[in-house]
């Protein structure tokens, strides 16, 4: 059995760790509230951009097919995979589940005889993919906790250019969408090419008929407006993923640190019982020695 001093040292070490995990939990909770506010402010704007893009696509009709980002490549040989992860760990399986989802998708692509081009945001994703031997076509770090729209524009410019130049024939984005501090869903979204259903017919009245948005006059023509809206739609989709991922990270970290603090408390309780048993054993041993000494003198 360990001595009282050894157990006391273990208790002190666990208590120090518990202080750190509680502090990290409180910091994550504060940052989560700000991230939730950003999501609430972003979602109406993102929905409005999507609605405007769909309306312009409907007005453009067949002319929309002339826009490169809406036109599928004749053949598909290379698929771009954009993984959205965090810059830091200590958040449970938040980052690893994105890496696993991207790896599974890459395996499916390889089984179809296609190759993959990797893009990753966040140091965890970049380091994990590099460790696995993947060459990154794009890596973006340093802003995972508080992404700016300029960060999303940089990523969008790279994947759009790669698609237009024929370096990739499709771009898939995988990220953690935020539901609650306890729940983050791994979400897969096709960024390029934008599908006809996503652009032209996403809004309907439940009977398969598109909702009527009223008469709209476009100046210049709908195709020119659509050419401007489509890149914005891709940028806002990436930015939304970054913001959702940031909130999801803080929620996952807060939950993980709370669990760690509770586990530390249980360990301290166990060590305290162990220390009490050690103290009791020492006292019992001393009493037995005193009694034995007294009997030896009598």
Q: What would you note in describing this structure?
A:
The protein has 298 residues and is an alpha/beta fold. It has one domain: Pyruvate Kinase, Chain: A, domain 1 (3-Layer(aba) Sandwich), CATH 3.40.1380. Helices cover 61% and strands 13% of the residues. It contains 6 helices and 5 strands, in the order αβαβαβαββαα. Strands 3-2-1-4-5 form a 5-stranded mixed β-sheet, with helices on both faces. Helix 3 links the parallel strand 2 and strand 3 (136-140). Helix 1 (4-60) runs antiparallel to helix 6 (222-297). The longest helix has 76 residues, at 222-297.
Straight-line N-to-C gap: 33 Å
User: Judging by the overall fold, what is the CATH architecture?
Assistant: 3-Layer(aba) Sandwich
Number of domains: 1
> If helices are DSSP runs of H or I spanning 4 or more residues, what is the number of helices?
6
Total count of strands: 5
Give the helices and strands as they follow along the chain.
Answer: HEHEHEHEEHH
Query: What is the CATH H-level superfamily?
Result: ATP synthase, F1 complex, gamma subunit
Fraction of residues in helix = 55-70%
By helix and strand content, what is the structural category? Answer: alpha/beta
Q: Summarize model confidence as the mean pLDDT.
A: 86
- Rg calc: 28 Å
Strand coverage percent: 5-15%
CATH class: Alpha Beta
Strand order of the largest sheet: 3-2-1-4-5
CATH topological fold name: Pyruvate Kinase, Chain: A, domain 1
Sheet having the most strands = 5 strands, mixed
Stretches where pLDDT is under 50 for at least 5 consecutive residues are 201-214
């Amino acid at each position: 059995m360990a001595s009282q001093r050894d157990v006391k040292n273990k208790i002190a070490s666990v208590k120090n760790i518990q202080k750190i995990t509680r502090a990290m939990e409180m910091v994550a909770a504060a940052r989560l509230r700000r991230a939730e506010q950003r999501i609430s402010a972003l979602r109406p704007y993102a929905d409005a951009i999507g609605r405007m893009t769909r309306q312009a696509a409907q007005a453009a009709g067949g002319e929309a097919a002339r826009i490169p980002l809406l036109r599928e490549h004749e053949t598909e040989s290379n698929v771009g995979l954009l993984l959205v992860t965090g810059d830091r760990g200590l958040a449970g399986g938040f980052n690893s589940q994105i890496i696993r989802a991207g790896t599974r998708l890459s395996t499916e692509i390889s089984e179809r005889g296609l190759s993959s081009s990797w893009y990753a945001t966040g140091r965890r994703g970049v380091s994990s993919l590099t460790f696995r031997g993947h060459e990154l076509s794009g890596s973006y770090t340093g802003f995972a906790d508080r992404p700016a729209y300029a960060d999303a524009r940089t990523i969008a410019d790279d994947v759009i250019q790669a698609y237009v130049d024929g370096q990739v024939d499709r771009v898939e984005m995988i990220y953690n969408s935020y539901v609650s501090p306890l729940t983050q869903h791994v979400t897969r979204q096709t960024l390029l090419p934008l599908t006809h259903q996503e652009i032209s017919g996403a809004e309907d009245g439940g009977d398969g008929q598109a909702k009527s948005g009223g008469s709209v006059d476009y100046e210049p023509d709908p195709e020119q407006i659509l050419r401007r809206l489509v890149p914005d739609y891709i940028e806002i989709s990436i930015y939304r993923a970054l913001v959702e991922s940031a909130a999801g990270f803080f929620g996952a970290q807060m939950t993980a640190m709370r669990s760690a603090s509770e586990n530390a408390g249980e360990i301290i309780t166990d060590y305290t019982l162990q220390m009490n048993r050690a103290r009791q054993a020492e006292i019992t041993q001393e009493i037995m020695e005193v009694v034995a000494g007294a009997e030896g003198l009598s």
